[in-house]
Amino acid sequence: MPTNRHVQKEKVATYASVLLDAALAAGGQDAVLEVRDQAERIIRIMRSNMDLSSSLQDSSYTPEQRNSLARNVFAQAHPVLIDVLAVMAERGDFALLSRVWESYGEQVERKLNVTVVDVTTVVPLDDHLREVITKKSEADLGTKVVLRESIDKSLIGGILMSANGKRIDASMTSQLEAARNVLKHSTDGGEC
Amino acid sequence: MNVKNKVLRGCGSAAVAFGAASAMLPAQAFADEGSGVAAILPQMDEFIPMLVAFIILWIILAKFGWPLFEGMLVKRETTIKDALEQSENARVESERVLAEYKRQLEETKAQSAQIIADAKKTGEAVKADITAKAQAEAAGMIEKAHAAIEADKKAAIAELQGSVADLSVAVASRLIGEDLNDDEHRKIIERYVNEAGSFNAN
Fold first, then answer.
1. What are phi and psi of B41, to 5 degrees?
2. Of A136-140, B8-12, B27-31, B125-129, which range is least confident?
3. Domain map (residue ranges) of chain A
4. What's one GO MF term for it (chain A) (predicted)?
């Protein structure tokens, strides 16, 4: 007899699979990656807006009301993603969105043999850097790699890469922070 | 002793009786004085009555007078003897008391000496104890002071290190952020990517 955890896992995998198949059918790999990015942004929005999050999961609304609410709020998203989000809200499964996004990434990697690597830098990448980063990532991960680039001046310098929950932090911020900790906690040389 | 007393008593009684007889008949005893040896010899007709009178007197005195006199002597003797015994007893008692006082005095002296010695010993012990406690407290205070100074020193050093670290990082951040152009940033990124660890290492 399946436990509640297994039911949830099956449900998450089903949502992710439906979303991937629909995105792939709608626009190929580009659509798949676009849906992934939009879903990630929606998750961040949901974490920062508890009113919206609780409203989409509020059982005092009817399923149709939650469906309608999701469609109206995420009207600018990819149509495939809107449909899946609306169904999740209607069935009261909107809290599973972050797990669906993780499963979606795993299925993308498994079905398309593509791993999305998020790259954050201070300046835009040029083609040479993209090639260097892609080769390194493909060598590490053993799959094709798609870079999702973003700019963050707070890094000061260097690069921050993450894929499948794994992270390489080679930013100036982290190195300066490490240097700060070493300077603060080193004791040799402090004796007079 | 009794014989001697009786002899003495008899001689005493005779002397008293002779005296008394001489006093009563002085004129007849020496009334007719002759010449030569006869002058010093008593006349028999006078001597016999005098002797009889003497004996009678002696008997009377021995019978009635002497016991009274003897009683007085015995009483006197007893009184003197008692007084002597009492004085002897008093002397013995006083000597005993004196010895007792001397003994008590010696004991008191010994006790005093012991008390003084004990007090001195106790004083020395208290002095040593107080000195040891004072030294221990002083050592503890010095140790605490050293610890406090060391802690303050470490805190000051840590604070200084923190300030230096913050300042250094802030200066480095500003220098890197302002002085590096895009190409230099890209060169740094490339170097970091080549030097960075693997995804699989995490």
1. -90, 140
2. B27-31
3. 4-106, 114-185
4. proton-transporting ATP synthase activity, rotational mechanism
